[in-house]
Amino acid sequence: MTYLVLSLTLLTVTLSACAQLAFKLGVTKPSMASALQSSITESLVAAAISPFIWIGLIIYGLSVAMWLWVLSKVELSVAYPFVGISFLVTMAFSALLLNETLTPARVFGTLLIACGCVLVGKSA
């Protein structure tokens, strides 16, 4: 795997984690939270007008486009385990930006996933 492909793979999974953060911020806004407790129509309308949901969709769309390029360069069995790195990024965002609690078991499990990604990456 070249450094360019590796870099874009890591950027892709990071962008995917950023999209998840935007989605989380979008659904926790009071207007969205109350709409989600109502009908599906109100939920869809609230999502359609939520800036965070749109930002998440745009970021996610960009990451999908980049992912397609990555898949054109490496085997799926090599590229896909790197998606596990998004667990690390998401966990960091959750703790640092959303003040979510990290338990030792959650940290350990996430680190195990990351170690597996490194092992797969070194085999390429």
UniProtKB/TrEMBL annotation:
It is found in: Cell membrane. The keyword Nuclease does not apply. Pfam families: EamA. It is a multi-pass membrane protein. It comes from Spartinivicinus poritis. InterPro entries: EamA_dom (IPR000620), EmrE-like (IPR037185), Small_drug/metabolite_transptr (IPR000390). Residues 46-120 form the EamA domain. Residues 1-19 form the signal peptide. PANTHER family: 4-AMINO-4-DEOXY-L-ARABINOSE-PHOSPHOUNDECAPRENOL FLIPPASE SUBUNIT ARNF-RELATED, SMR FAMILY PROTON-DEPENDENT DRUG EFFLUX TRANSPORTER SUGE. The chain crosses the membrane at residues 43-71, 78-98, 104-121. Keywords: Cell inner membrane, Cell membrane, Lipid A biosynthesis, Lipid biosynthesis, Lipid metabolism, Lipopolysaccharide biosynthesis, Membrane, Signal, Transmembrane, Transmembrane helix. This is EamA domain-containing protein.
